[in-house]
Amino acid sequence: MTETLTPSAAVGADSPLALLFDIALEISTQGEDEQREDAKTAALDHVWSHYPDTLGKAVDEDDWSGWPALPGAGLEPCAVAHLDGGWWLHHTADGDQERDVLTLIAPCTCGNGYVDTVMEGERDLLQILSELRATGGRFPHDSGWPDCDSQRRVRAWGDTRP
Questions:
Q1: What pLDDT digit, counting tens, does each position of 97-150 carry?
Q2: pLDDT tens track for 3-35
Q3: What's the predicted TM-score (pTM) here?
């Protein structure tokens, strides 16, 4: 027979459990400034760890801006860096899979919008840079789509690039 522990009905104001509840509430409630700084730090750590020979050398700490979560839209805190030429980096953590997601956003050759692609590492970035050099730093427009905003190279984790 298994016995179960029956919790006491009330927690005293001076008890260790009450103190732990207060600490957990304080820690789990991050302000917007703290979220911005944490997002920027996470982006820097990811770039320096996974792109040391490329983005780690080209993008400085001052290039990143952190943004707080938008709970109503289901968006986690993120950081963005402008790379010139209409290029952007967007970094966030995929909350469900607890993975860093670094996305390159670059203009489309049609001139009407942007195309984004999730990068899996430095080799992936180098391949994308080689491809985009031929188009002057713009993703080729796919005329089969109604507009360039519909063209997506973002793929699920583990999918391979065609």
A1: 578 999 999 988 887 788 889 999 999 999 999 999 988 888 887 776 656 654
A2: 665 555 566 777 888 888 878 777 766 788 888
A3: 0.71
Q: Give one DSSP letter per residue of 24-86, joined into a string.
A: HHHHH---HHHHHHHHHHHHHHHHHHH-TTTHHHH--GGGEEEE--BGGGTBPPEEEEEEETT
Using CA atoms, how far residue 151 sits from 82, 116, 142, in Å, is: 21, 8, 7
CA distances 114 to 101, 109, 137, Å, are 18, 9, 11
Chain centre distance of CA 78: 5
Closest CA to 40 of 83, 89, 96, 107: 89
CA distance 73 to 38: 20
